[in-house]
Design brief:
Radius of gyration: 22 Å
Number of helices: 4
Helix content: 10-25%
Oligomer: single chain
Strand content: 25-35%
């Protein structure tokens, strides 16, 4: 397909999972701020997990398509519309020549991801198609999209139009505390300062950007010997505490090294969640162990595998015809259905293949009580 940018929106850039392996020579990772959303969109479309997509901030673009394919809009709900009609997020939606995608404005979250069948095809720079605007590299000429830009997609994978990411397999959003592993320099903060960090409700500053999310409000955190250290590596989610005593969470375009004390590191899943907060949103931090963080990462990997199985099941056994089942009713399930579930029936939602009277069906469910 080709994508013709009729209007670019507030800030629309090409991003993938980042430019890993070059921090030692000073090149930031960049990539999607909400990586779990980008990966899920690509899985729905049969793309590699890290295929390039459009990261759309606050106000979306208007895009006309040429050719046939599919799209999936994930992440924040910015009211996507196809030819003026609302379309579902987290769903593979077919598009064809002349279709126009637009956005009505944010309903929930700050950033959406437009994934396309085949991914956005721009040149690789250091192994990534991500845009890093401060250096003017990657993406399309190292910049945000402009009116009149034309993008092309790569070779599409296998997908089924209408495939949806089940609610139970989507990332967790909302304003729950950001799960944070203390360190590596929490001992450089006075004990009462560490207590303050984990007990204060901050507000997200309007000066936050792809490099870092600044906190406002609360009592300044006091250092033991001042805020400066010998510069060392900055991981995703590192929480720096500079001289003014207010935390800064380092995000996708973070610098490779830094010389401020780091009181903790926010888990990657909650870094993604923070990227969806609007300026002024309340922000809190909660203490977790490194072992607990590993378990969170394992759960995310399991959710992605379940989504892949769900998509594969739809491709293998698309529904024969729409079925309507009244609540509380039962249907006979043949032995062929045994072991075919993608999610267990006790889960809040899920999907499975069943055979009824010799006819194959793909069934989804969601608990509503």
């Amino acid at each position: 397909m080709k994508l013709f940018i009729q209007s670019p929106g507030a800030l629309t850039t090409i991003q993938d999972l980042g430019r890993w392996g070059y921090q030692a020579i000073g090149m930031p990772v960049s990539g999607a701020m909400d990586a779990p959303a980008l990966v899920r969109g690509n899985i729905l479309l049969g793309n590699p997990d890290g295929a390039a997509a459009l990261e759309i901030t606050m106000m979306g673009p208007s895009i006309r398509f040429e050719g046939e394919g599919a799209i999936a809009v994930t992440g924040g709900d910015l009211s996507p519309r196809l030819n003026g009609q609302p379309i579902a997020n987290w769903t593979a939606v077919p598009v064809r020549t002349g279709d126009v995608l637009s956005f009505g404005g944010p309903r929930k979250g700050l950033r959406a991801y437009l994934c396309t069948s085949g991914g956005i095809d721009v040149p690789l720079v250091m192994g990534s198609r991500s845009t890093y605007m401060k250096a003017g590299i990657g993406g399309l000429e190292g910049r945000k999209l402009q009116k009149g830009d034309v993008l092309v997609t790569g070779e599409p994978g296998k997908y089924a139009a209408g495939t949806e990411c089940p609610e139970s397999l989507r990332p967790e959003y909302g304003e729950a505390p950001l799960r944070t592993v203390p360190g590596p320099q929490d001992s450089y903060i006075r004990p009462e300062g560490v207590k303050t960090f984990f007990e204060t409700e901050y507000r997200l500053s309007a000066s936050s950007d792809r490099m870092g999310c600044r906190m406002e409000g609360g009592t300044p955190i006091e250092h033991v010997r001042g805020p400066d250290i010998v510069s060392d590596a900055i991981p995703m989610g590192a929480v720096q505490v500079p001289g003014q005593g207010l935390p800064i969470v380092m995000m996708a375009d973070r610098q490779t090294t830094g010389g401020y004390v780091k009181i903790g590191v926010v888990h990657a899943l909650d870094v993604a969640r923070l990227s969806q907060f609007l300026p002024g949103s309340p922000v809190r931090f909660s203490r977790i162990t490194q072992e607990a963080g590993i378990e969170l990462s394992k759960a995310e990997a399991s959710a992605l595998e379940a989504l892949r199985a769900h998509v594969a099941a739809v491709l293998t056994n698309p529904p024969s015809r729409p079925q309507s089942v009244k609540p509380g009713s039962t249907v006979p399930v043949s032995a062929a259905a045994q072991g075919s579930s993608v999610r267990q029936c006790g889960a809040s939602s899920g999907a499975m293949n069943i055979t009824v009277n010799g006819e194959k069906f793909f069934v989804t469910w969601e608990r509503t009580e």
